[in-house]
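pls ignore typos typing on phone
magnesium ion + seq
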Amino acid sequence: MLTIKNLHAGVEDKEILKGIDLEVKPGEVHAIMGPNGSGKSTLSSVIAGKEEYEVSEGEIYLEGEDIGELAAEERAHKGLFLSFQYPVEIPGVSVTNFIKTAINESRKAKGMEDMPANEMLKKIREKAELLDIDRKFLSRSLNEGFSGGEKKRNEIFQLAMLEPKLAILDETDSGLDIDALRIVANGVNKLRSKDNAVVVITHYQRLLEYIVPDFVHVLHDGKIVKSGTKELALELEAKGYDWVKQEVTA
Ligand code: ADP
Ligand code: MG
Ligand code: MG
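k done
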């Protein structure tokens, strides 16, 4: 699904990612953890194709296709979803209308017609029901006055509607309360299948009590310094990141 080989990237003359290798297979959930400033958000941005970062070396493949040269939008149309790609407030545009437009734009990019209105409505109803989202929420203006939990609900709804092959959820928000964590985790758990994959990026072990990952990787100073199964997250919880740092520098 996703293969990253020897990825080096940064801004201007500062290297942030210093040789990342990662293989994510269909059906898998990977967690990327690491202390603040280790490069987690940079990694998600570089995979998504954000222009502010420059890739100096290495390759990124999505389903075997080298996507390294594609613009962020093209990567999204190929089935890559990055959380918080639409954090902007859009007064007057509802949660529903926004997702309708996103879906039809994605279809257009593939040379497809708009999704028929009745099919769209059916899909919206199904996904809203699956995720316990009520109708009132669907008619609210996008992100306008949304609480942390509502932002997450919207994000998970977008994820459910767009059905990406690979979702990267960068849980950067230090203000994530337990409700918001549960919304994300329930959504991911309901949406995970053998045909998609999820990369959850987080500073917090707590999220992984709700989303049980198949693999855990620890990022430190732009490199994956340790990989393991879910037990690694527990070990980190108990011993802290200093333990990994010490192992690396020893
Ligand atoms: P994390 O998400 O793990 O906290 P980041 O990827 O946000 O880490 O940042 C990693 C390092 O790269 C930090 O030292 C940060 O200051 C730096 N960095 C990230 N993005 C930029 C940028 N756009 N310009 C300059 N430095 C950046
Ligand atoms: Mg940070
Ligand atoms: Mg971050």
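Residues 36-37, 41 surround magnesium ion (ligand 2) (CB under 6 Å). The domain at 2-249 is CATH 3.40.50.300 (Rossmann fold). more later
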